Amino acid sequence: MIKQIFIALFLFFGSVNVFASYILIPMDAESQKEHLKAYGITYWTLERQVKVKWLLNYRGGSFLLPDSEEIKRECQIRGVSFEVLSDAKTEQILQEISSPSKNMEAVVLEKAPKIAVYSPKGNQPWDDAVTMVLTYAEIPYETIYDEEVMGDELLLYDWLHLHHEDFTGQYGKFYRAYRAAPWYIAEKKKAEDLAAKMGYSKVSEAKRDVSLKIRDYVVGGGFMFAMCSATDSFDIALSASDGVDICESMFDGDPSDPGYQSKIDYAKTFAFKNFTLERNPMVYEFSSIDMTAKRRIPKETDYFTLMDYSAKWDPIPCMLVQNHTALVKGFMGQTTSYKRDEVKSNVLVMGENKTNGEARYIHGIKGKGFFTFYGGHDPEDYQHRVGDAKTELALHPNSPGYRLILNNVLFPAAKKKKQKT
Predict the structure, then answer these.
(1) What is the share, in percent, of the chain residues with pLDDT greater than 70?
(2) pTM metric for this prediction
(3) Which of the two ends of the chain, N or C, has the fewest CB atoms closer than 10 A to its terminal CB?
(4) CA dihedral (22, 27, 32, 36) positive or negative
């Protein structure tokens, strides 16, 4: 009888020791089948008021979640790879991460950020890389535009993405190629009608004030992410926000200010300095910031490198570069990348192509808030053109380029430590 009791107790305590109490969602290249949907699982868990640990630099930036049948079932439904860990194994991993000799950190994600996408009404999710990946990862977002921004509705959101917008009021500089196209004429008319509805005689003036509202949102503590033309055109709009007219007559009905280049105020911008504006309306370019026309890189060798940061001392940029590779495939856009010499010195260049002297992925602090600019249109469509078919993300579930977008989505959920860089 005593022997039987001893065996029963041994089996009981043995089962307790191997009982799984955590779920690890690995994010390395070998273990994860659905990197992009893994972010969706993490967001879904945060929505249920359950905290998650983001294990920076551990197996590609893995996620550690409490064990529950509901989470495991959701992972299975979405095809996300996961591992079930015992208490002992979890403690071993966390001890390894906390070691001063390891460039790793466990960052607590506390709350699902409320997401807004600044985009014209009627745009489809596949018109923009961010809305496309949010939809694929099943992360909810709301669409807002100029009226909502001017109505101070940005205050309702934790994270804002700027769709591929032209904040200068020059309609994307599409004039030369598309001025007779029905879609261009319709979009121009729609923008003019909206500006008039808000009380402006010019689209450029409406966009200027929208830019200033977005600036105030960031300065007040908001998180802003922008891609392609929304990056440099936003900064250009801020630089001309003291009433400098940089639009030619085909855009706003009157000539630009003579010598407007000398009136540009670089102190007002977020990221860029000393740039020269493109005055010719027939040129598909805003300024010298963009490297698109200066690139001499074959598609086959077009990659950019992610920087390496201290997870313990610089967790913010470290979060933003989490990936299963340090080498990311390049891709084009109206604004593809940024001239390295025209990026302000207080802005972090987190991804760059050194051979071409260009920054691809940059981050900075403005007031109490943060901004990230990412050059290019679609990480899995090398040279996206007007009218091209949408990207099917189911064919790219492990896209490193799209992972950078989703790093930014989760970034506001993190309990922040002071940045040392």
Answers:
(1) 92
(2) 0.92
(3) N
(4) positive
Instruction: Quick: pLDDT tens for 385-396.
Output: 766 778 999 999
The two tokens of residue 232 are 């440099």
Please state whether beta strands 83-86 and 20-25 pair in parallel, antiparallel, or not at all (unpaired). antiparallel
Q: What is the pLDDT of residues 96-134, one digit of tens each?
A: 999 999 999 999 999 999 999 999 887 765 578 999 999
b (16+ CB within 10 A) / e for 362-389: bbbebeebbbbbbbbbbbbbeebeeeee
* Segment 152-172 mean pLDDT: 95
Distance between CA 312 and CA 319 in Å, rounded?
11
Where does CATH 3.30.70.790 sit in the chain?
2-109
Q: Where in the chain is the domain with CATH 3.40.50.880?
A: 115-413
CATH of domain 115-413: 3.40.50.880
Q: What is the 3-state secondary structure (H, E, C) of the chain?
A: CHHHHHHHHHHHHHHHHCCEEEEEECCCCCCCCCHHHHHHHHHHHHHCCCCEEEEECCCCCEEEEECCHHHHHHHHHHCCCCEEEEHHHHHHHHHHHHCCCCCCEEEEECCCCCEEEECCCCCCHHHCHHHHHHHHHCCCCEEECHHHHHCCHHHHCCEEEECCCCCCCCHHHCHHHHCCCHHHHHHHHHHHHHHHHCCCCCHHHHHHHHHHHHHHHHHCCCEEEEECHHHHHHHHHHHCCCCCCCCCHHHHCCCCCCCHHHHCCHHHCCCECCCCECCCCCCCCCECCECHHHCCCCHHHCEEEECCCCCCCCHHHHHHCCCCCCEEECCCCCCCCEEHHHECCCCEEEEEEHHHCEEEEEEEEECCEEEEEECCCCCCCCCCCCCCCCCCHHHCCCCHHHHHHHHHHHHHHECCCCCCC
CATH number belonging to the domain at 2-109, selected among 3.30.70.790, 3.20.20.20, 3.90.226.10, 3.40.50.720? 3.30.70.790
Q: How far is CA 26 from CA 5, 23, 64, 83, 420, in A?
A: 40, 9, 9, 8, 28
Phi, psi dihedrals of residue 225, rounded to the nearest 5°: -130, 135
CA distance to 91, 93, 170, 375, 414, per residue, from 130 (Å): 35, 32, 23, 13, 20
Confidence of residue 13 (pLDDT cuts 50, 70, 90): very low
